[in-house]
Predict the structure.
Amino acid sequence: MKIALLGNPNTGKSSVFNMLTGLRQQVGNFPGVTVEKKSGTLKTPNGKYELIDFPGTYSLVGHSLDEQIVQNVLSDPSNQDFPDAILYVADSANIERNLLFFSQLYDLGLPCILALNMWDRAKRKNLKIDIEKLQQTFPKAKILTSNARVSLGKSRIMEAIDQLDELAIENLNFNEYSIQFNALCQYENTEQKLTHLRQLGLVSALNKFSSTSRKIDSILVHPIYGYLIFAFLLLTIFQFIFSFASIPMDFIDAQFVRLSAWGASVLPEGLLSNLITQGLIPGIGGVLVFVPQIAILFLFISLLEESGYLSRVVFIMDRLMRPFGLNGKSVVPLLSSVACAIPGIMSARTITDRKERLTTIFVAPFMSCSARIPVYTLLINLVIEPTYIWGFLSLQGLVLFGLYTLGIVFALGTAYLMKIFIKRKNQGFHLMELPEYKKPSLENVLLNVIEKVKIFVLDAGKIIIAISILLWGLATFGPSSRENELLKLHRSESFQNASEQQRQESEKALMLSNSYIGHFGRWMEPAISPLGYDWKIGVALLCSFAAREVFVGSLATIYAVGDEDQNQKRLIEKLKVERNPEGRLIYNLATGLSLLIFYVFAMQCMATLAVVRRETKSWRWPLIQLFYMGVVAYLMSLLTYQLLS
Amino acid sequence: MSITLDAVLLHQIVEIKAISDSTLSLKLLEMGLTKGQKIKAVFKAPFGDPIAYELNGNLISMRKEEAQQIQVAIA
């Protein structure tokens, strides 16, 4: 039996859902649309039910895409998600308005349970609800009270569900049903309903907005303190994703390196063992390494959302983001992307308007993420003099600042272009409730974090592992001519005289530069030489598609300086003297800046692509993004190199 | 004298007379906003847009362009 969980936004609907289903939740899709479908199993003494958590809406009529799913499913009894019964969650402190949608559902003839949730809040506000009168108005509904945030009312809801009439839907006349449905969607009908509900006199007193919340608002939406507090909160979140997350991330990284090494030592030497220890294990590690950042960001976002603060952020940022076709809610995803675009893009889910959400997701990877830092540092140290302007302003720091600014400018600029060129399907409204502040429920927050981590690991993870194995294959295998090159190297005099470590390093360099990726890098040299790159940089660019920071490691392998961590200095020294066949220095200012610019703009991150695919439910957007960012990167780097050289 | 909702002073209670956009009026109705209803502006975001209104104990944020669609009279 299918039960739809319906109700207005901010009624504690998700608390009810979490209370009833706990960890037995799945996230899927409503067929045909990209709206997320959350469902879960509920076990009661008498049976097992499927509970579908629909987006919070104010009525049967859908104004935004999320709301339309409610209309689509409920208007069509043959829809596979059409419920057998409805569990309606209402905010007790706000009962008249909440009953509007309920009475529409009731008039459809579906078996209904009405949960008067947040009962404690109505009590605190001295609002007495005449339940007897309510029952008289809706004689067929099962009415009960609950307070899901503290798990009150669970048994009452389960008992009511067990008493539901399973056969009600079978007696439904489809024709009458859709006539009734359409009638209920009319303005006049809705107005009559609301007026009628208000005349019933169900509530003893007028609801007043909490004065405590009002006081908090006078600070949090204040023109100065409001922004300062928001900036402070953002800085705190950054600090956590940027610095503190690196502790568990390094730990995960180290464990996977150990696992690879252990695998290599116990498995028989060969291709399969290589695939496992160099392709599969690092691939899985490459997925799990993002978990701390995702968990931390969503921990904060859920806390802010649950408390009611996030809607205030939207309120104070809305006007600033609007010229760019973005929404106040775009601020958190965009700024989180400075740490990592992956959790940032996932957090764009809070944006209900499709176009604004898509724009936010599309431009987020332009923000310079933490994976670009190793690349930036290496290249800046390589080509920018460590001098100071006016005696205190570090030139290197200034360049770094410029790179970050460039990313922000292009993110907003692209958003602006999208605003002009992409037509909006339906004019969305920005009416939004600013709910009263409340203490976040820990259970809701943790379940949300678990859900986000699960989505990333299970959905985006598959793609990331597949691409990393592909990249491993291309860098490991090579055409048969490679064997000859290896023989030549072994016979050479310098190899004979070298130490064991140097031998290994130069072998590794030869294997990579003669692999398929190496050949591909050579093949595309004509295309990248106008940017000032040689084929070695090309190979490093290709390898770093796995993740930007791989660029440094790949250069270290090609230049045979061994492990990049201890040898960053050695690498820099080696790169500084590297010359092209004509004898000119390769890593001059022009090439260095051109490369830096390339990394600001290019979509060099398969994990981000995988997440964009997951969030937009198609390859269309990630591919457009890859192409667009690639073209921007190419043109800007070309411009930089040609101007400077 | 009829003015639009975006132009009312903070904390001044006004009564809704008419809503010019029909889709918006249905949306507003669902959120509990009907003709004859009392409403007041409580605070504005920096730059004066959006504006937060209180009605029936709820706080609703509205963009200026949306509030412009609503005719009100001072109660």
